Each structure stands twice: as C-alpha cells, then as structure tokens.
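## tool: complex_structure
## caller: assistant
## args:
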Amino acid sequence: MAELVAVIASTHHPFYYRASTATGEERPPFADEWVRKITAFRETLTKARPDVLVMVGSDHFHQLWLDNMPQFLVGKAPFYDGNFYNEEREFGLPRMLLKGQEDLSTYVLREGIDAGFDLAFSNELRIDHSITCPIITLRPQNDLPIVPIYTNIFAPPLPRPKRFVQLGRTIRQLIESWPSEQRVAVIGTGHLSLELGGPRQFGPHGPAPEFDQRAVEWISTGDIEGCLAEVTLDSLHAPGNATHGFMDFMLMMGVAGEGRKADYVDTYDLFHTMEAYFTWYPNGGPR
Amino acid sequence: MSKYLVNKFLYTVDRDPELVERYREDPEGTVAWWEERHACRILNCHGGESSTWVRFDDTERAALAGHDYPALFELGAHPFLTLTLFIAMFERDYEEPLGFQQEYARRLSHFSLPYPDIAT
Ligand SMILES: [Fe+2]
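## result:
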C-alpha cells in the first residue's frame, strides 16, 4: 500500500512569489524573513521524500463558475497548466505546467464516490494559485506529479465545516489503501482570517488576530472537536468575509487526525493576512 | 435582482484584458454592449443556445455603469470578483502600493456585519 509520508497545511499568499524574487528598491522589508520561513517549511516536505503530491485548494472563480459549480472536484488529467491571466496581472505569478498522477486520481474518484462523496471530476483543469503557490513555496523544482482536489469555499451554498473534516479523513483512508508503493504527501492550502473586497481588507494585520490565534491553536494541537464546536458557516463571517477558506485547514486537520499535534508550526504576521505553516508526519518522523 | 448576472459581468470582463481596458474607459457603453451581446451567452454553449431571459435590473445596471463598487457590495455582488476587477482598472492611478485597496476599504467603511448576502 502507499504510504502517507507528510501532511502539510499552509496559507497561499499570492504575493510571496513577487516578494521573494524582487530585488533592490522593489524588495519589500518583510521579504527576507518570509523567505527564511518558507525555506525552513520547505525542508519539512523535502525530508519526507514524497513521490506524489495530493494538492487541496480552491479555485478562485477562474475555471469553475456559477453556471456549474461543484462542491468537491478531483482533477484527473495527465497534466495541469497553472495560473491565469488575472493572477499574472495582479500577483506577477508565472505560467506553470504540472504533471498529473492519473492513476491516483482514478482511485480517489472511484473509492471516494463509493465512500459517500459524490465527487465531481475534470479532465482538463487549469489550476490556480491555491495550488501553484504551495508548489512555488514547498517544491519549487516542480518535479512531482499531483492530484488536485478543489473545494468550494467561495460560492454559497457551501458544504459545512464538518464535511470538510470528513473529506479529509476519507482522503487519508484512500491514500493509505491505494495499492501502490508510492510515498504520498498531502498539501492543502486555505486562509486564516481574511477580508477581500470589504471594509476590513488590506489592514496592517489580518482582520481578526484573535481568531487567527485560536485557529493556529486548533490546528497545531489537532483539536478538531473544539474547532467544530465553534466554527460554523455563519460564525466564519465574523473574522472576515473570505474566512471560509479556513475550512480547507479543517479538511487538513481531518487528514492529520483528531488530537494529532503538528510536528512543525510556524506563523508570520503580515499586512492583510497572517501566514501559517503546519506539517505532520503520520508515521513518526521522516525515514 | 440578478446578482448572478452582475457576477457574470465582473467575471467575464475581468478575464479579458481588452474588456478590462474598455470597461475602464467607457463603463456605460461597455455595460450596455455587454448586456446586449453577452449577458445571455451560457459560457460553455455556442451562441445559438443562449439564455432568453437574463437581464440587469436598473440598480444593477447603474452600479456597474457608474463603477460604483460600494453599490455593488450593497447589492451582494461577489466581493472577490469586484475587488479583482477594480484593482485591475484603478490600482495604476495610485502612487502608494496598496493605495487603491485602502481607499476601497475606506469607501466601504459604513458597512458593518452582517454584510449583504452574496448567495446567488
Ligand atoms: Fe485564496
């Protein structure tokens, strides 16, 4: 059976690429420390020596649209182009091409549907910065095949937080039962408190630092029950109008498991939103 | 009320560099042209299979034609779509980095929770 060698949850700040590659006058004052943190975070994936990456993210109205909106969608294609014109325009993100692990996509779809998730699929999926950002930060050589999994955190009605946790648990079971000798890492990205297009956007910190603190506590201690007791679709409006992206972190807590403390935790308080980085090693440390 | 159609306008203009410029320069004309020619088009179908019933109401048309992003927020347009497109059109007019984004927040500062519903 395949081995789950690392579970990683991260924010996906689209400005990292530009900040980290800028030089001279253009380089923002927070860039050096940010690069240092990302480099340390990257090492937690490298050490796990994965062969395949399952990438959980959320399309930001790029390819998926309101005339046909899936709640959970799995990419099943031999390749995925990455990044869209408006991400190049606003964030300076580069065009990318990622390889797909199609047999694992097939397995996740068949077994996931049988396990009670009516997963949508796509045979021609262009992935956006929710998946390309963690490739840029965690695996910049972009040498591993992926299975992209998209969640709807953007276009209500949304699935409830509990459903995200359940999907995370199911993804873990599917990987661990995949008849293959491959080493698999799951990387999922979401948001802490975040406001987009509202009065609290682009402040000196995230819109709700107290929420961020609690969120980091829930994630780093694997406190799924505590988190589910407080987080609802309604409650997530309070910390910022785009905070529903936190449910992707809840999905990753589901992958990591109830009560599982993260083996690596780091945060970085930036303008607009707080960065947060977590790694779990399901079977002890990397071997 | 056709929040969906307002979102569709923002979405289809935002992804087309020429339309972004056209909407910046001539908002009223672009909105009228788009409603006439593109509003009914189902994105994944050819023109012969367009919808026959979609149109803006007057408030929505006026908000779009006036580049009035506080009004769009009030109407429940998806804030991510509005923000992304308006950054593309107007960030360039501000000297300071994030100058437009902060002005945008200020112009919405009279809103408090709960914000207008964005469900479509
Ligand atoms: Fe995002």
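## assistant note: The CA atoms of residues 137 and 147 of chain A lie 18 Å apart. The pocket of fe (ii) ion is lined by residues A 12, 60, 130, 191, 245 (CB under 6 Å). Handing back to user.
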